[in-house]
Amino acid sequence: MAARVKIPTQLRAATGGVSEATVEGETVGDVLDGLFDQFAELRERISDEHGGLRRFVNVYLAGEDIRFLDGIATSVPDGAELTILPAVAGG
Amino acid sequence: MAAEKLKCKECGSEYPLVALYVCDRCFGPLEVSYGAPIDADDVAALRRRIQAGSGDMWRYADFLPLAGGAPGPSNHRASRAGVPAGWTPLVRAERLAERLRLREVWVKNDSANPTHSFKDRVVAVASARARELGFAALACASTGNLGNAVAAQAAALGLPSYVFIPADLEEQKVLATGIYGTNLMTVRGNYDDVNRLCTELSAEHDDWAFVNINMRPYYSEGSKTVAFEIVEQLGWELPDRIIVPIASGSLFTKVHKGFREWIDLGLVTGREPVMHGAQATGCAPVANAFAAGQDFCQPVKPDTIAKSLSIGNPADGPYVLELARRTGGSVDAVSDDQIRAGIALLAETTGIFTETAGGVTVAVLEELARRGEIDPDERVVLLITGDGLKTLDAVRGSFRAREIDPTVDSFDETLARAAA
To answer: Is the pTM of this model over 0.80?
Structure first.
């Protein structure tokens, strides 16, 4: 299983400018771990000290917030698109 | 008080005053940070300077993050001043207070802004800063009121604009936005989908000022002016309590910041007001977290008539929870029926017709009064953020008009029948 992960501009300094990566993994957590293997610096930017996501990080699987699915345990279909975005208040 | 830098609210990292909104290091939100407060001896002079200022929110330009101060005639750019926002009425609501068995209730009627909601304040600051930074267009993700304000401001300033709203919004808000000649996109999805899309788009269009995304640190500061006005209109005094509607939570945190800044400067003395947040039961991620004693918000899928508050994933939620608890306040939620009743109660007792968000705020005040949480001697301010003409469906069928022939007899008979 491989997912395409879209990386927001704010994190591209940690990926050498790369905006999209293909990562293997069964679940969102696996995919993120795979992503951190490729770009080690990303881990501390979006993960908290307990291995969860920091509170202002939103992750979407095919446009749906993973908190409406099974969080980082959500299974990732082959070829799915995972998007990482900063939480931003609106109105 | 000059703006000096942007600072991450989570980790404290500092950035220059440009169009950034997220900390590169920890993804936390950035906020404008100002230089050291002026000397306390200057307080009287500062008050006089404010009072001699313009009759709109630019009288508070000293406390806003604009390098060039207030846009407008003072710098010979009158045509570039945009729509004048702020300095809306603060009215004593005696009959509302009586109905709720409270002593002193005031209504800050922010529907008296140019596009009939408080959003004109935040857009005024964001668009003025966008011009200073050389942006070519204004844009926003909106639950309706913000779209109104951005479209109007862009028209006034002669800038192109792009407004993104959920496709199921109230017709009044759609019509009152499109008329300004904006590029209006109705997105198949809820506000949180619109917000996600715009967050992605803002990275693709770096010459657009998305007022509530890349301009967010400047935009949100505009909400402080509500607090400044309340203090000034109360004769340089603080309210004991304030009820604020919550969508993303930004208004709530910035109203508090406004009070705090003026207390710190010595412009007003007293205790921080107790802060109450108001949500609809059909979209209550912050009220749910408050009730559960959590410090984070589990997102929800909104389902309420209060569409201007329909943000299921409120980014400022954690800060709202912290402030509500610290000031001894709360975050409460009310049903759609309570919201309709709240709209009617405010209209009948004050002559102010508010949209559904205002109904939420009034209904929460009723709840607090009923629970006995408000000491009858306290001074309470109710923040009414938008006009009832924006959400007419909410009041449809709530009263009956009587059709008569154009004769005195017909009128007399009908009135007698109605009274019977």
So the answer is: yes
